[in-house]
Write a structure and sequence with these properties.
globular, six-stranded antiparallel beta sheet
C-alpha cells in the first residue's frame, strides 16, 4: 500500500487475483472502531435499512457488502485509498486520521469530531 499521510497500515493479508485500481468496481466489508477501541455500530444501523442480500453475519458480527467505483469518492478518502491495491479475499487493518475520514464534523451520536479511526477491510470482489 502506498503511504499516504494520515493512513497507517497496521495489518495485512494478501488476497488473490489482480489488484484493485482506480476505476474498478469493488465489493468490500468493513468494521470501524474509534482509536480507543470502541466499535462504531454503522453496520448494525445500515442493516435495518438495506436489502437482506447485502448483509452477511459471521460469528455474530454484521457485515454490509459495500459496492463502489474506486476514484469516484463514494467512500471516505482513507477507506478508498486503503482499498487500492487490495485483491479479492484480502484483508487490511488501517488507522485513519480525521482529515481522511469525517474531519471536524464526525457523525452525530456515532463518531466524534476529529476522531482517529481504526478500520478493518475485507475485499470481496474486484471488477473492471
Amino acid at each position: 500500500m502506498k503511504r499516504l499521510s494520515g493512513l497507517k497500515l497496521l495489518e495485512e493479508r494478501e488476497g488473490e487475483g489482480r489488484q484493485a485500481e482506480k476505476g474498478d468496481r469493488v465489493v468490500y466489508n468493513t468494521r470501524i472502531f474509534l482509536n480507543q477501541g470502541d466499535e462504531v455500530p454503522l453496520n448494525d444501523i445500515q442493516a435495518k435499512q438495506i436489502p437482506k442480500e447485502m448483509i452477511r453475519v459471521v460469528a455474530g458480527v454484521t457485515f454490509i457488502d459495500h459496492t463502489i467505483v474506486l476514484g469516484q469518492r463514494q467512500a471516505i478518502a482513507g477507506i478508498e485509498h486503503a482499498l487500492l491495491g487490495m485483491k479479492a479475499g484480502g484483508y487490511r487493518k488501517v488507522r485513519i486520521s480525521p482529515h481522511l475520514a469525517y474531519r471536524d464534523k464526525g457523525i452525530p451520536d456515532l463518531i466524534p469530531a476529529d476522531a482517529v479511526l481504526v478500520v478493518e477491510l475485507w475485499m470481496r470482489e474486484v471488477g473492471g
